[in-house]
Amino acid sequence: MSLGLKWKFPLFLAVLLVFTTGVLSWLVLSGIKTNQREQMEESLQRQADVAEMRVKQDYLTGERLKPVDFMGKQGQELAVDLGISTNMRVILYDAKGQEVGNSLPLAEKPDVGDALSYALKGKIAYITEADSLIYLAPMQGPDGMLGVVQLHTSLKAQHEFYNRMAYRLVWTGGIVLLLSFILGFIYVYRQVRDIVKLKAEADRISRGEYPERTPLRRKDELGQLGTGILHMSRDIKGHMAALQEEKHHLQLAVEKLQALEQQQKQFINNVSHEFKTPLTSIQAYTDLLGMYGDDPQLIEEARSAIAKESERLYQLVEDVLRLSLLEKYDFESQAEEVELADLLRDVVSRISAKATKYDLTIQTDFALARVWGDRDHFIHIFMNLLDNAIKYNRPGGRIVIQSRASEDEVSVSVRNTGRIIPREWWAHLFEPFSTLHQDRARSTGGTGLGLPLASQLAEKQGGRLELVRSDAEETEFIVSFPRHASGRTRKT
After folding, report:
1. Which of 1-5, 123-127, 463-467 bottoms out in mean pLDDT, i.e. has the lowest?
2. Judging by DSSP bridges, how do beta strands 409-416 and 475-482 pair with one another?
3. Count of other CB atoms within 10 angstroms of residue 442
């Protein structure tokens, strides 16, 4: 005996709910486990990078020894310092695999022989035992491998969180499954009951009995089934209009993607060009040194030029990486309440020596007002603006930096007596690698990335950076931020 729709639909609904609940639970738990693993790996990688940087810094700045001798001499002290800074147990090995430092020397030491051998080959290895994880990463130095850093961290909190989520998913999934089945069964039963009524009316029509009124008082598809092709044609027309609109949206999306692709190609071309210029200079001096290595004047000139171009390359890489991160990813931000006047005085004190070098005077007028954001990013914005005001100023010129506060906003004006920026260039100043005076940019070390970085950092803080004036007297940039609720204004 075959089952009717009254039973087929509920059974199908039950199977579908069980399958859906099971798949969703599995996906959630898998996502949690994957996310925990990725976060842990990223965290340990960052800690390993910090440890490598610290060891390399001590190696380069201290007494110049062989890597093995250096690790044997400084290993214990470095392990203790790294253990305090990372809040983990840290064990250091030299390039021969000998333990040279242990932040917790009295604690039990696990066997990591195989993983250590793997790490000594320049690869990352880690061991998971119950609720703990041991992470081993190689540390490279300028003269080869310095050694291996071993980090210990606990997985107990992650495992407890995973088990709690699994427990909750089981109970929640069961309750949701039961309630969904009851509600779905009631809903499906009503639909099947109305379909049976429509079939009965169709049987009456086949027998020549024409109903005088609709058997269903509904406003959905079942209630409209007897209205004919007219209503269906209206529905089709509505769907076609929706499809056309969706096609238009997709076309706009394709055009936007094409524009982004073009911007990416242009960005890559600009980066390649900017890298090529200092590299060409370094290569030229390298060739000259190979031919005339005994010329003291050439050696000094080459040393100065190579140092300058290397510094430019380093700054260019830093700016490109920071700009790329701002455009593609969310960057880490340590937001806090910042007294802008104090921060501006700090920035002015940092750059005053450079202004004095170029015979420039700096005038200040600050209003006390608090803003909310990342202090380092604020410093980067204003250091960039003041650095540009020095680079592109005239000898004996001046720089004026003022801050003003209204009820809702704080604005900082940076003016300098530099060259005039043509109006048609204003919109391009905040594009990567846009430099108005190419020769001047080369002589001052400009990369064309400073203003784009400052502009994007301002936007990340909820503010904006604008060029508002450039004439024969002054060029003025204004950066504005939302004012923090507890800020006060008075002259300083």
Report:
1. 1-5
2. antiparallel
3. 15
Instruction: Judge contact between 389 and 413, C-beta under 8 A.
Output: no
For residue range 242-288, list pLDDT tens digits in order: 888 888 888 888 887 776 676 566 566 556 655 666 677 777 778 77
Using alpha carbons, select from 388, 372, 360 the residue that is nearest to residue 455. Answer: 388
* Radius of gyration, alpha carbons of the chain: 34
Residue with tokens 């209009």: 241
Residue-wise pLDDT for 146-158, tens only, equals: 889 988 888 888 8
Detail the DSSP E strand segments found in 340-417.
Answer: 361-365, 370-374, 398-405, 409-416
- pLDDT given for residue 319 in this prediction: 61
Nearest to 82 by CA among 104, 66, 64: 104
Find, among 387, 52, 445, the residue nearest to 435 by Cα. 445
> Which structure tokens are listed for 122?
């320049």
| Contacts of 400 by beta carbon, 8 Å cutoff, 6+ apart | 362, 363, 364, 365, 413, 414, 415, 416, 474
Q: H or E element: which one contains 100?
A: strand 99-102
Instruction: Choose among 422, 419, 423, 350: nearest CA to 387.
Output: 350
| Residue 365 DSSP code | E
Measured between alpha carbons, how far is 159 from 36 in angstroms, rounded to an integer? 9
Match 């050696």 to its residue by tokens: 299
DSSP 125-170: EEEEETTEEEEEEEEEETTEEEEEEEEEEE-HHHHHHHHHHHHHHH
| Cα-Cα-Cα-Cα dihedral sign, residues 18, 19, 20, 26 | positive
Residue 491's pLDDT band, with cuts at 50, 70 and 90, is very low
Q: In a 3-state reduction of DSSP, which class is residue 443?
A: helix
Amino acid at 237: K
| 446 residue type, one letter | G
Cα separation, 440 vs 435, whole angstroms: 9
Would you state the structure tokens that stand for residue 426, as one six-digit string? 């204003």
Q: How does the average pLDDT of the chain come out, rounded?
A: 78
